[in-house]
Automatic annotation (TrEMBL):
<dbReference type="InterPro" id="IPR051713">
    <property type="entry name" value="T-cell_Activation_Regulation"/>
</dbReference>
<dbReference type="GO" id="GO:0042130">
    <property type="term" value="P:negative regulation of T cell proliferation"/>
</dbReference>
<keyword id="KW-0812">Transmembrane</keyword>
<feature type="signal peptide">
    <location>
        <begin position="1"/>
        <end position="18"/>
    </location>
</feature>
<dbReference type="GO" id="GO:0071222">
    <property type="term" value="P:cellular response to lipopolysaccharide"/>
</dbReference>
<dbReference type="InterPro" id="IPR013106">
    <property type="entry name" value="Ig_V-set"/>
</dbReference>
<dbReference type="GO" id="GO:0006955">
    <property type="term" value="P:immune response"/>
</dbReference>
<keyword id="KW-1015">Disulfide bond</keyword>
<keyword id="KW-0472">Membrane</keyword>
<feature type="transmembrane region" description="Helical">
    <location>
        <begin position="133"/>
        <end position="153"/>
    </location>
</feature>
<keyword id="KW-0675">Receptor</keyword>
<dbReference type="GO" id="GO:0042102">
    <property type="term" value="P:positive regulation of T cell proliferation"/>
</dbReference>
<feature type="domain" description="Immunoglobulin V-set">
    <location>
        <begin position="32"/>
        <end position="111"/>
    </location>
</feature>
<dbReference type="InterPro" id="IPR036179">
    <property type="entry name" value="Ig-like_dom_sf"/>
</dbReference>
<keyword id="KW-0325">Glycoprotein</keyword>
<keyword id="KW-0393">Immunoglobulin domain</keyword>
<dbReference type="GO" id="GO:0009897">
    <property type="term" value="C:external side of plasma membrane"/>
</dbReference>
Length: 181
């Protein structure tokens, strides 16, 4: 499950364009159930103010300058913070197990600066070739094919052959109209 999550995380493509209305704007395309990393960095020399994270204007958490975290909403424990890097001005968070209602605008603010991150939910496995399960399924299919081929060659499927003759036998015994008359 973790490997799957990791893949989904890397599949979430990130695009960024800085500075429109003072915020660093980022759009993240992510699939349901994936982990989504929401970046937020501020100049540490300004880190004296409360940093707030919100989702669609609903408060999620506040980090006050003594590194204390006040959660307003942990999103059922799916919202992770990285307190060890607060002092580097890194206030990024990680949202686990993306739900449909997690889409929308996230804002990380410190005084007048802000990061504005938009999570867009995108359908899963738009590209089958990026999906390891595609290779797994393809491998399983190939295995079945090879097994069948080997089976036919080594005549280990004779059991099937006798089964079909057994069916023939049933037909002869009971259902054959010629036998009935
Ligand atoms: C996100 O998806 C939209 C369409 O849904 C697409 O136009 C955009 O290029 C995608 N962005 C990235 C970074 O993949
Ligand atoms: C951080 O802010 C201080 C004070 O405003 C400024 O002198 C410094 O150049 C800034 N550093 C960066 C990397 O923006
Ligand atoms: C940080 O806060 C302290 C006390 O609250 C104040 O003395 C100092 O000037 C502030 N520094 C900045 C960069 O805002
Ligand atoms: C911010 O911290 C996170 C979590 O430790 C890390 O993954 C990320 O690379 C950091 N960002 C920067 C620019 O250092």
């Amino acid at each position: 499950m973790n490997i799957l999550h990791l893949w989904m995380f890397t599949q979430a493509l990130v695009s960024s364009n800085a500075l429109s209305n003072g915020c660093t704007n980022i759009i993240i395309n992510a699939t349901l159930k994936s982990k989504v990393f929401l970046p937020c960095h501020f100049n540490t020399s300004l880190y004296n103010n409360t940093v707030t994270w919100s989702h669609c204007k609903e408060a999620l958490l506040r980090i006050v300058s003594n590194n204390r975290i006040n959660f307003d909403n942990t999103r059922e424990g799916r919202l992770n913070v990285f307190p060890l890097v607060f002092n580097e001005g890194n206030f990024s968070v990680l949202l686990d197990d993306l739900q449909a209602q997690d889409a929308g605008v996230y804002v990380c603010e410190m005084s007048t600066e802000c990061w504005r991150i938009i999570i867009r939910e995108v359908p899963q496995s738009t590209n089958h070739f990026l999906n390891p399960w595609f290779y797994f399924a393809a491998g399983a299919g190939l295995f079945t094919l090879l097994f069948t081929a080997v089976c036919l060659l080594s005549k280990c499927c004779e059991e099937n052959a006798s089964e079909s003759s057994a069916v023939g036998g049933v037909l002869r015994d009971g259902l054959n109209p010629i036998q009935g008359t």
